[in-house]
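Hello forum,

I keep getting stuck at the same step: I have a sequence, I want structure tokens, and every attempt I make locally crashes halfway through. Rather than fight my setup again tonight, could one of you with a working pipeline run this one for me? It's a single chain of 267 residues.
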Amino acid sequence: MSKGTATDAALRISIGHHVSAAAADYAREKISAALDYAPEPLLGMRVRITGHADPAVARPIVAQANVNMNGRPVRVQVAAATTREAIDLLAARLRTRLERLARHGGAVHGELSRSRSVECRHGGTVGGLLPRARDTAEPRRIVRRKSYALLGETCDEAVFDMEIMDYDFHLFTESGTDADSVLYRGEDRSYRLAQVDPRPASVTRSAVSFTVSPTPAPALDVEDAVARLELTGLPFVFFRDRASNRGSVLYHRYDGDYGLITPPTQQ
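Reply #2:
Ran it on my machine without issues. Output:
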């Protein structure tokens, strides 16, 4: 059996509401071709395509691929106006990620057996784009709350987690400073580190180039973070939660609502 035949047979595709059942055949063709670029054996491959019923959502089709590449989870998610566009974008993004891992997978170690299953972009803005404006007066809500223990990582390891899980930002504890931190991509796609208590001189240096923000994370209540996110128009807000005194991230989701990521109140 050829690699392409084996991949096609093992690929599981699920179609959700508001998506044509005919999308499965097109997705299988496009995603199978992208998976041929995997540099390691594929142990599991799953694609899910769902639609949003709200007509005010400009990109209602969300497509996600989860691949087990020799024990490593690889995740890609996109949103688009049509099913065909979403599948095309997903296939292109998956191919790019697999090619990048083939080139650089060994350069940044950090085995993903310890990685968290955290909703992207942490479930957030796909492709770095802000969610669309709403046509209704219904206020945005925090519809997704995720709490996980922040592992001590170097920025090299944080970048690896971001790349393999297709995140736009990553909340973690920087190992050199033991400070709650977020690594994200700036407007020029370079990496930047923000910390609850910045100590640039103590941050563990790495092979990946990044800059460190000298500004401490603002101390905010969750309600204040919501207000700041609305006022700034940024994809996310990194802040020190006044209730827990820990670094947290409030972000825009693809559907226009918010997600909140927090570490446990006890380390």
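DSSP finds five helices and 14 strands in the chain. If your local run keeps crashing, start a new thread with the error log.
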